[in-house]
């Protein structure tokens, strides 16, 4: 069954720190001096992100960012939208959402969006780099998910090694939506 909608995590999935890439947890840059605008200077798009998103749009796939942020809703939305604008990828997404700072939030948001768009769970896919915050919440609500292999998460979370649906680069998403 062809996927009609793909949900993407932001930090660690669409972009990561220039300096450490997948070697260290993404959030270290937020401990640096400055604000979210300054932090963007330490981030780069992950390889193949831009071309993959362009292909998905050309295929007519709905693309949505769901990125967890612990701030208030208003501040979190400002931060995630700033990142999308910073990377000049706004036109490649149908929606951008900052999800709340608890692990079930992405699953809840996925179900809400699927209901609004009248798309079934079997036609949806979640792509992320964190087992507990991206992969598991989607699977818990019955939505297919892919986990990006990252040194940090695969070493620090034993359950991650049992996940069969993993990818090394974002371009591999195309193979899972056909």
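Q: What amino acid sequence fits the structure above?
A:
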């Amino acid at each position: 069954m062809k996927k009609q909608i793909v949900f993407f995590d932001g930090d660690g999935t669409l972009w990561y720190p220039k300096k450490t890439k997948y070697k260290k947890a993404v959030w270290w840059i937020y401990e640096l001096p400055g604000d979210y605008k300054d932090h963007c200077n330490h981030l780069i798009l992950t390889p193949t992100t831009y071309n993959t998103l362009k292909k998905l749009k050309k295929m007519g796939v709905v693309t949505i960012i769901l990125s967890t942020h612990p701030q208030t809703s208003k501040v979190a939305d400002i931060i995630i939208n700033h990142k999308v604008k910073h990377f000049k990828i706004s036109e490649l997404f149908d929606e951008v959402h900052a999800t709340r700072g608890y692990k079930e939030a992405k699953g809840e948001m996925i179900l809400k969006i699927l209901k609004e768009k009248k798309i079934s769970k079997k036609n949806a896919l979640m792509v992320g780099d964190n087992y507990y915050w991206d992969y598991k919440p989607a699977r818990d609500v019955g939505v297919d998910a892919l986990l990006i292999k990252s040194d940090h998460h695969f070493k620090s979370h034993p359950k991650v090694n049992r996940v069969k649906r993993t990818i090394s680069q974002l371009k591999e998403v195309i193979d899972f939506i056909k």
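Q: And what stands out in the fold?
A: The beta strands are 5-8, 15-17, 43-45, 62-68, 95-99, 124-128, 144-148, 166-167.
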